[in-house]
Amino acid sequence: MTAPASLTVDLNALSHNFHALEALTHVPVHPVVKANAYGLGAIPVAKRLLAEGARTFFVARVNEGVALREAIGAEPTIYVLDGCVAGAAGTLKSADLRPILNHADQLIEWTSVGGGLCGVQIDTGMNRLGFRPEDAPGPFDGLELVMSHLACADAPAEPMNRRQQGAFAAISALYPDAVKSFANSGGCFLGADYAFDAVRPGICLYGGGPEGRPDARLKAVATLSAEILQIRDVPTGESIGYSRGFVADAPRRIATCGAGYADGLLRSMSPRGQVWIAGGLRPLLGRVSMDVMAVDVTGADVAIGDRVEIFGADRPLDDAAAAAGTISYELLTSIGNRCERTYLGQT
Ligand SMILES: *Cc1c(COP(=O)(O)O)cnc(C)c1O
């Protein structure tokens, strides 16, 4: 039995996307599996990527790194983007995690426990994390990776991309022995001089397009679907759901589907949200509630027990996100714990 709300993760599609990014950039792909691999499950995702040849992973938090290390064994390299946050040096050491040092206090903290293999982030304009170029430490023992992060990689025409690329090329040249990593998913598509020595994609591995819209080079990895629990005919003038969110302007057939905001739908999916059922897109009607949502199936050949696709191969993740006024990243990381996760292609 498939649960009313279900997330299917296609690990073969993940593998396709991983190799597509390798072929595009011609450098090693270091997958970003932070936030539970964007909600898809960091451990099954990382295990499959290991089998595909990935050897280095990025997480954001120290605790994400600890859990990943336990799951994937001692061999792979795990970098922690938060870096050596206060009090974390011991945990980083004991789990053999490599911090990306972002500022001088982190460097001091890391050195105070004896240092060791690590990376440094240089801020080339995003003003988020990292040393400003003028404050960057010179090469030191243990420093094996230098990275920076693009602010506008999803907008190829944005001139800031080129400025950041130039700034990174200049500063990273001061570290001849370190691996240089610059591009996230969007950066992988900006051209050969953005790839440097290794790329750090997240969203494109998971099927989101590099520019916030579907990209034919990538396959859908995540499918969120919901079962039709009830079907009813609603006469003209009657309302549907909380707060009379929709009033029938004509007789409508409504399918009440078993997924709500506790499963990862967003309330902002109404009024523009659509789902895929019976070979076409059908609008959501009224408010998304905690456990269910209403879909207009007037004239469609559907039955109780059929499933609607909220996103997946037929309803691209980026389109579903745009209809809700958000981005693929937020939609994926909003998938609820309650939602049953099933893996295709697990070995
Ligand atoms: C999240 C993150 C990435 C991956 O970004 P995508 O846009 O999902 O490819 C890469 N680098 C850093 C520093 C990040 O925070």
Comma- or semicolon-separated keywords:
binds pyridoxal-5'-phosphate; 10 helices; alpha/beta; 8-stranded mixed β-sheet; 347 residues
Short description, anyone?
Helices cover 25% and strands 22% of the residues. The chain contains ten helices and 16 strands.
Structural overview:
With 347 residues, this protein is an alpha/beta fold. Helices cover 25% and strands 22% of the residues. The protein has helices spanning 11-25, 34-38, 42-51, 62-72, 89-94, 104-112, 159-172, 185-188, 317-323, 328-333, and strands spanning 5-10, 56-59, 77-80, 98-101, 118-121, 143-147, 179-181, 222-234, 239-240, 246-247, 252-257, 274-277, 280-285, 293-296, 307-311, 340-344. Strands 1, 8, 11, 12, 13, 14, 15 and 16 form an eight-stranded mixed β-sheet that branches. Strands 2-3-4-5-6-7 form a six-stranded parallel β-sheet, with helices on one face. A two-stranded antiparallel ribbon has the order 9-10. Helix 1 crosses helix 3. It is elongated. Pyridoxal-5'-phosphate binds at residues 32, 34, 81, 149, 184-186, 200-203. Pyridoxal-5'-phosphate (PLP) is lined by residues 32, 34, 81, 149, 184-186, 200-203.
Question: What is the residue-mean pLDDT, rounded to a whole number?
Answer: 97
**Structural class based on helices, strands and sheet pairing:** alpha/beta
Number of helices: 10
Number of strands: 16
Radius of gyration from the alpha-carbon trace, in angstroms? 23 Å
How much beta, percentage-wise? 15-25%
Q: Termini separation (Å)?
A: 21 Å
Identify low-pLDDT runs.
none
Helical content, roughly? Answer: 25-40%
What about the largest sheet?
8 strands, mixed
Give the overall silhouette.
elongated
Summarize the helix and strand pattern as letters: EHHHEHEHEHEEHEHEEEEEEEEHHE
Bound compounds: pyridoxal-5'-phosphate
